[in-house]
Amino acid sequence: VGAFNSCHSLEKINIPNTVEFIGGFAFFNCANLQKISLPDSVITIESGTFAGCKNLQEINIPDNVSTVSIDAFSGCKSLKKIFIPKSVTTIKGTKISLTEECLAYF
Q1: pLDDT by residue, tens only, the chain of 106 residues
Q2: pTM, whole model, 2 decimals?
Q3: How far apart are CA 52 and CA 73, in angstroms?
Q4: Start-to-end Cα distance in the chain
Q5: Which of 34, 29, 60 has the alpha carbon at shortest distance from 45?
Q6: Residue 19 · residue 43 · CB < 8 Å
Q7: Which residue from 106, 83, 30, 77 is spatially nearest to 95, judged by alpha carbons?
């Protein structure tokens, strides 16, 4: 179970630059999470990390990230922008719920 699993009062979070891995399901079903700032220190986004964050609107994946795991963004129905750097060499079966309005930058 993730650290902030189903924390419905969480709307935004800034992760400190000492964090390298965001564990599986860390923010699973944080339905009101709208904005998250990931530091450059992050290198892996684990399975289901942001799954069910239905109000997440934008995420900028840092340049050091090389792996995005299964279903990391599944169910992110409000996602409007996702920035995926060239450093991401592995996307393991990840479902990103893109709407017609969503812009994905690679």
Answers
A1: 678 999 999 999 889 999 999 989 999 999 999 988 899 999 999 989 999 999 999 888 899 999 888 788 888 889 888 888 888 888 776 555 555 555 555 4
A2: 0.82
A3: 8
A4: 30
A5: 60
A6: no
A7: 77
